[in-house]
Amino acid sequence: xxxxxxxxxxxxxxxxxxxxxxxxxxxxxxxxxxxLAILGPNDTPAARAVLLHQLGLNKxxxxxxxxWIMNIFHGNLGASFLTKQTVTNALGVAVPIDLELVVVSxxxxxxxxxxxxLIAALRPNRLFDxxxxxxxxxxxxxxxxxxxxLLVLVFAVTLKWVPATGFDRLSQGLGQNLKSVILPSVxxxxxxxxxxxxxxxxxLIATLQEDFVTMARSKGLSxxxxxxxxxxxxxxxxxxxxxxISIGTLFTGAFVVEVLFQLPGIGYxxxxxxxxxxxxxxxxxxxxxxxxxxxxNFGVDFLLTILDPRVRRA
Amino acid sequence: xxxxxxxxDRRAFLARGATTAAAVGLAGVGLPTLLSACSxxxxxxxxxxLSAPGIGTGKPKRGxxxxxxxxxxxxxxxxxxxxxxxxxxxxxxxVYDTLTMIAADGSAKPYLAKSVTPNPDLTVWTIxxxxxxxFHDGSPLNAxxxxxxxxxLQSSALTGQALKGVVxxxxxxxxxxxxxxxxxxxxxxxxxxxxxxxxxxxxxxxxSQSSTKPVGTGPFSLVEWVPNDHMTVKRNPHYWRxxxxxxxxxxxxxxxxxxxxxxxxKSRTIDLMVTRDPNAIRDLQDNSxxxxxxxxxxxxxxxDFVILNTTVDPTSDPLVRxxxxxxxxxxxLVKLFGAGIAKPNLSLFPPGSPYRAADNxxxxxxxxxxxxxxxxxxxxxxxxxxxxxxxxxxxxxxxxIQAIASMWELAGITTTVSEVEQVTFxxxxxxxxxxxxxxxxFAATDPDLNYVWMSPTTANPPIALNFSRNKDDALEAALQxxxxxxxxxxxxxxxxxxxxxxxxxxxxxxxxxxxxxxxxSNSVSNFNNLTLPDGSRALGFxxxxxxxxxxxxxx
Lengths: 314, 555
Hints:
Chain A has about 325 residues and is an all-alpha fold. Chain A has 2 domains: about 1-80 and about 275-315, no CATH class; about 95-265, MetI-like (MetI-like fold, Orthogonal Bundle). Chain A contains 15 helices and no strands. The termini of chain A are close together. The mean pLDDT of chain A is about 85. Chain B is of the alpha+beta class and about 550 residues long. In chain B, helix 10 runs antiparallel to helix 12 and helix 16 packs antiparallel against helix 17 (about 490-505). Among the domains of chain B are: about 60-95 and about 215-295 and about 515-555, Periplasmic binding protein-like II (D-Maltodextrin-Binding Protein, domain 2); about 305-515, Roll (Dipeptide-binding Protein, domain 3). The chains are: A mainly alpha (about 325), B alpha+beta (about 550). Chains A and B meet through helix 2, helix 3, helix 7 and helix 13 of A and helix 8 and helix 14 of B.
C-alpha cells in the first residue's frame, strides 16, 4: 500500500512539474505579443524594453521558468497587469466558488443518481428503470447553457426564490450562501446525474448477477443488507473514477455556468485573462486548475486502492 | 509593470475615451449659457418632485443600500491611467467629483469648482475651487491638488494625448485657484472638466499612483473592490453637499451578459441595471414594476457605425467606401437588431441637433448604385473588391456584421467576417491594422470633445487616435472653427460642415444611435434626479453613466 502511494506521489510530482512547464509555456504560445497587449498604444521600443525587463521576458526560457517557479514556491504568482490584483487574491476569490460549486453539485448529483440507480438496478427494464434511463438520457442532452437560463427563469425570475446571479460568501450567512449556489450547482449536477446514474446502474446490474449475491439471497439476507454490504462497494469503482474526472473537470469546465450566473470562478477568470492576455493570471489560473485536476484524480486513485485491493496489485 | 496601467480598453477608449468621458451634450446650447452657467455657488439638494422614471416624488428616505448591475468591469480608479468606460465613470461618480458637471440643459456648470471663468479670448481659464471640501482621507481640496491632478493627466500616455491640444500650461493663482492656459481658444473647456480629466483625486493617491484605492471627495468611499465580482462603497459622512447622499452604501456588480443582468433585475438580485440591449429595454419599458430611464434627448449619444481604414486597400478608395455605404440597408439593419428601440441615424449628430446638416449628403441605401460603384472601382483592386469586416467577440454584434456582410455581398463585395478579442481590437484600431470594424463611440457633451477622434493631426502613425486616418483639410478647418469660436451661429455652421465632410469622406458608415438605459425596480427612488449646487438639475443618466448621489430606497 505504502509503495503504491509513494509511486503515485512521485507520479503526481512529475505530472505537476510537466503541468507547470505547460502553464509557463502557455502564454508564449498565445497569439500576439503580451507586451503589446499590455502596452497598447503606449507601445514604444523603450517602453517595451522596460516591460520585457519587468516581466523577465528578455531572459532565456529556462531562466524565466526558474524565476517563475521559485516565486510560486514563495506564494507569489504575480499580479494582473490589468487590475493590479494579485493572482493569489484572485484565486482567493475563485477557489471558494469553484470548491462550493463542485461540492454542492456533486453531492446533489450523487444524492439523485445513487438511489435512482439502486432502484433501477434491482428491477432492470421495468417501468422505473425505463423512465429513469430515458429521463437521464434527456438530461444528458440538456447542456448547461440551456439548463441554466431555464432554471433562472423559473426559480429566480418567476418565483424569486433565489438570486439570478452572483455569489454570496459563507461569511454572509449559510442560507444566503446556499441560495446563491443552488441554481448553478443544479445546472452542473444535471450532467453529472446522468453519468453517475448510468455508470452505477450498469455496475450494479452486473454485480447483482454475481454468485456471491445469489448466495447471500439464498441465505435469506434482506435486499437492503445485500445492496449496502455486498453490492455497493464492488459496484462503485466506475462511479468513483467517473466522479474523479467530473470533479476535476469542473474546476475549469464550469466556465459556462460561471458566465451565466456571473460567478468569478477559475474558469471565468481564466477565460477573461486569456481574452486580455493577462499574462500572469493565465499562468496562475491554468496551473491551479490543472494541479487541482491531477490532485483530485490522485485522491480518487487512492480511494480506489482502498475499495479494491486489485488496483494495488495491478 | 507600472506602465501596464496604460493599456487601452476598447469600451473606454472607443466609446468615450479620455476626453469624451462625460455624458451627452451641448447640442443646442450656446456659449453664453455655457459661460454664465459656470459661476453659480448656491447649494440646494432637495430633489425635484416630478412624476417620471428615476425621479422621486416623496420625501427622501435615508439609509439602506442598493445593488447596481453594470455591463462591464474596469481596470482601476486612477483617472490618469485607467480606462473609464461607462462603468468606470459610474464608479468614479461614486468616489470622486468632477470640477464641472453637465446640467440637464446641456451646459457645463461648476461642481467642485466654484467658478470656471475664461479670459476674453478664451485661451486662459481660471478654476476657482469651493472652500471647505475635504477628501476621504481628510486632506483639503485646494489649488495644489488640482495642479498636481492636471499635471498628472498631462504626463499620462492615456490622457496626455487628449490634453495635448487643449492644455498648454497650468499655474497656481491662489490657494484655491489655478489658471489653465490653452494652446488655442477652447470654447468647450468647461465640458472637458466634466469628463474623465475633470475628476480630482487626493494628493496621497496621486503620490502612490494607486489604481485600486481611490481617495476622492465623492459621496461614497471605497469599502472593497474585487475585480469581476463587485465594488462596494459606503456613505461619505463628510460629503461637501449637505444632506447627500441618502444611501448608506452601494454595491456595483459587473454582469457582462445582457440577459443575466436583466434576469438579475427581474429576480430582485439587483436594484438597478445599466444596459444598451434594445431587447432588454423593450421588455422592461412597459412593465410597471420598473422605471426605465433612457438616454436624454439632448446632445450627442454614442453612434453605432462601421469604421473604415482610409489608408489600406481597398477601403482607401473613396469609390469603394461609397459602394459600401450605398450597400447597407440601415433601415433593415435597425429593424432586425433594434427591437423597435434603436432608430436609424445617418449622421454624426442626432435628429434635432442644430449641428446636423439639413442634407449632409450621406449616401442612402441604393443597391444598384453600389453595384455600379463596385464595377467602377474593381479594376483598380485586382478585378474584385474584398473587404474584411470584424467586431469584438459578442454574439449580438456578430449577428449584426453578418447581416452587413450579406448586404455587401449582394453588391458584389466579397466580405469576410471575423471576431476580434477586445485587446487586439483596440490595438488594431490605434495601429491601423484593420479594414472595417463595427464600433460605438462619439457620445459628447460638446462636439469639440470628438476633435481628437477626427482631426488629421491625430491621424499619423504609429499611434493614431483618429482611427480611420482620414485626412481632410476642410474637415480640420471646420473642426477648428467649432473649437475656437464663441459665436453659436458660427459653431453651428462649422459642425454642419463637419457632418457634410464626414458624409463625403466616409470614414464612418453610420447606422443608429446606441441605445442606453438605466432601469430600476420600484424599491429605488430618485436615482436620476441629481441637483447641482445652483439648484438646477443635472443631466443625469446618459450613455451608460450613473451617479448614485440622489438615490434613496423606498422600502
